[in-house]
Amino acid sequence: MNIYGLTFSQLEDYLIASGEKITKAPFIFKGLYQQQINSFQELLNIRQSLKEQLQTDFSLSLPRLLQQSSGENTEKFLFALQDDSLIEAVLMRQKYGNSLCISSQVGCNMACNFCQSGRFKKVRNLQPQELVSQIIFVQKFLHVTISNIVLMGIGEPFDNYQNVMQFLEIIQHPYGLALGSNHITVSTCGLAPQIEAYATHTYHGLLAISLHAPDEQTRSRLMPINRRYPITQLMDAARFYIQQTGKKIMLEYTMLQDINDTPQQAQMLSDLIGSDAFHVNLIPYNQTQNLGFTKSSQQQIITFYDILKKNHITVTMRREFGSSVNAACGQLRADYERN
Ligand code: SAH
């Protein structure tokens, strides 16, 4: 078993079951996540026989790096997991710290038709240790500290709910990576029941919802999930999250020419949001493959932005962060598999 999949309390249970003192758990967690040991022999304040038992019972293995590409303030990683599944992670160096975008599944079943990841059907969910070890790998490899995590890589995190929540418990632990809940963002295509469960979960973090359209017809055309959980139901779940957590939700809106970028749609989006605690992030479409979509012109984006602003909606335009390294969802994997 890979030790990065254990929560702190599971580690304590292991120690008890092994006849050890649970007071050793903090030393082990600090070793894993603060000291970032490469071998159990490096653990501090642990006697030799326990180090050897840990070595017998657990591995410290990390994903294998297949490819790395760097852009301006961005590093993109293509990893192979133990079963040779391919996933991606992207490090974004920002003014406020280093943010790592990680994958949550091998492939994705949501089939949003403008997204590369949806072209590779889901093979399996990532295990908690495969989520955690993306962070550990990048921190060790680049000698950086990651201060923010976003689950916006390949996969739908709420289609892997249990493992993602266990991951959040592990990375928030004060003896571990100690990431605060306001430094962790889960991005979903809109699984309403899981949004509600997340809202009341002990280890919830921030929430981003991929909205991409203000009306049912356009959204159903872009995102099949909308036929299961239409915008009305999605917005109810979103408002429940806001009410339970007191946190704002980010609505992601990828600008697709002549599909979701008209002034009428900007007005509809404003009406949908009303005065609630939402923040709209307009994302330029990252156009690399022939999926039949074109990015909106700068002028269309600005017009759309201005209408939201005029309606007192909080709105930002995302810089085209990943495009120089093909960091839009699923692109590195798609390129790799083509070659
Ligand atoms: N499944 C989750 C997280 C992964 S996708 C979700 O849907 O939120 C991360 C974000 O990138 C989503 O908002 C997705 O719709 C968007 N996206 C996918 N392909 C894109 C592209 N080519 N250009 C811009 N945004 C894209």
Describe this protein with a few key phrases.
two-stranded antiparallel sheet; binds S-adenosyl-L-homocysteine; 339 residues; ten-stranded mixed sheet; DNA polymerase, domain 1; alpha/beta; elongated; TIM Barrel
What would the CATH topology of the largest domain be?
TIM Barrel
Any low-confidence stretches, pLDDT <50, length ≥5? none
Instruction: Please work out how many helical segments DSSP would assign.
Output: 12
Q: What is the straight-line distance between the termini? A: 34 Å
Amount of helix: 25-40%
Instruction: Tell me the number of structural domains.
Output: 2
Oligomer: single chain
H and E string: HHHEEEEEEHEHEHEHHHEHEHEH
Q: Please state the overall shape, judged from the principal axes of the Cα atoms.
A: elongated
User: Averaged pLDDT, please?
Assistant: 93
Distinct compounds present: S-adenosyl-L-homocysteine
What is the name of the CATH superfamily of the largest domain? Aldolase class I
Radius of gyration: 21 Å
Largest sheet: 10 strands, mixed
- How much beta, percentage-wise? 15-25%
